[in-house]
Structure formats: C-alpha cells, structure tokens
Design goal:
- The chain has four helices and twelve strands, in the order E-H-E-E-E-E-H-E-E-E-E-E-E-E-H-H.
- It is α/β, with parallel strands linked by helices and 292 residues long.
- The strands form three sheets. Strands 2-1-3-5-4 form a five-stranded mixed β-sheet.
- It is globular, with a radius of gyration of 22 Å.
- The protein starts with a strand and ends in an 8-residue tail after the last helix.
Length: 292
Amino acid sequence: MLVRHVAVVSEVANTSFSELAKVAAAVQKQVIRDFAPLWEIQATVDAFAKLEDVPIGYWPVIVQADIGYNAAGIHLDNDGQPFSLVQYSSGWSLTVSHEVLEMLADPFGDRLVAGSSIKPKQGRVEYLVEVCDPSEDRAFAYSVNGITVSDFYTPRFFDPVTTSGVRYGFGNGIKGPRQVLKGGYLSWHDPMTDHWWQQTFFGAKQSFRDLGIFKKGKESIREVIDRHTRHRYWGPEPAKGPAAAAAAGAVSAILQSAAAPLAEASMASESKAQGWRQQIQALKKTTDFEVL
C-alpha cells in the first residue's frame, strides 16, 4: 500500500517545536489507530522546524499567524501537489487534524461520490469527499495524547439508507448517512443544473445554499468550496595522537562523501519552500472567486 507523507510546520513565533511535535505525534497516532483502518490509507505525519527542512515528496500543513480568509484550507502547488494552510488559534491542533485527514482522503480536492440528494426532489447528485466537514465543530472533537483532534466520517457515510450496527462517523455524533451536525456542512454538485449546493448547520437550524456554477480553472473544487464557506475552527576522554588523527581522517572522508547529496537535497527543499511561500502570498492577495 502506498504510504503518504505529511509535514507539519509552524511559522508562528510563539509556538515551540516541542508543542508542534506533540500535535504532529497526536495526529500521527490518530491516522494510524483511527483513520487508516477505516479508510485504508497509510501515512506518516512529521513535525519540521521550518519549511526549508521539509523533504521533497512531503505534503506540508503550514500553521501561520495570518493566512488570510481566502487562503484557508487545502491547495495544489505549481507542481500539482497538495499543501494546506492553517490559521493559528486556540484550537489550531483541531484544524491541523482536520486538514491532514481531508488531505489524505482526497489529496487533490476533486473526489466525488454519487448518491441521493439530501435536498428534497433533487435526485442523484455528486458529493465532494470532505471527511471532517459535517462534524467539524469542536463539540464533536476528541482527544489523542491529550491533544484535541477532529472527528471524521467513515466511507459508509454515503450509504443509501441507514443500517443498524453501521458506523457512519468515528465519534458518536453522526448517526446516519449524509447527516450534518451542528456547526458543520456538506457540499455537492447537481449534474442536472451544474450548480453546487451545501447544507449548512451554522445557526439555529439547517439550511440549503445554492452556490451556483463554478467556472473551470486552476483551482480544485475544494478550494472554491472553502472560499464560499467560513469555517468555525486553530562519555570517554577523546583520543589523542596519531590514532585520533587517523580517526578524524576517516570521519572526514565519510562526511565529504555524504555532503554532496545532502547539499542537493537541502537546495531542492529550499527551492520548493520558496515556491510555496510565493504561492501563499498570491493566495492571500486573492479577494474574490469566479462563480457564474
């Protein structure tokens, strides 16, 4: 089975690497213990001190003090690989967990599942797979290693009917297929009209939102959806003499042989980090979206 690799990086000054590592370890445990058995997806989740340290091939989740409203969520970089931006807040571990799980379930933001619409008389529609959205509120979160992480739905969430004994969500909140809990939402495409719709539960009651027709562009479906939706969530004495010189020479030769590939890897990572930063700045400047 293909193993995916996720990097968690914080660019917030008042978060220590120790704190970051604890969050990454909790999400790693959540992925291995809770998420992988249900979704059959294997992944590593590792903390890195800075973006330049992230190896090529990792999908970064980047925590920043101010990501800009339109930049929130998961995006595709210029090479078509996913990365995520997380707004720093008191609940940032919950948001990191949310973004990691959704990145693993649908890296490119375009995975659709067909099913009957929850909107009466709409017929068959295509639901966007966003595993944490229907139960994203903190009220349905749980704890791993003392760290708050997000609830998520299971692959049975899109079943046609409710069946006794079936698990639709990891926690106890979601009791049946396509159920949206308070503080959450669900998005889908109506192929008959080409309109995108949502059911939201942000106020006292649930409501339907017609998001219109999305123009085809560089953005993934999820990127456009995210910009329509305001989320609620944040030893011995050293040797001397000839023996020491010989040992030092041997070590020096080993270090020199390793230096070239290490430098090449570092340059590649730094170049990728620069590309991510440029794209993040462009995202922050975006103030609108294209909807017909």
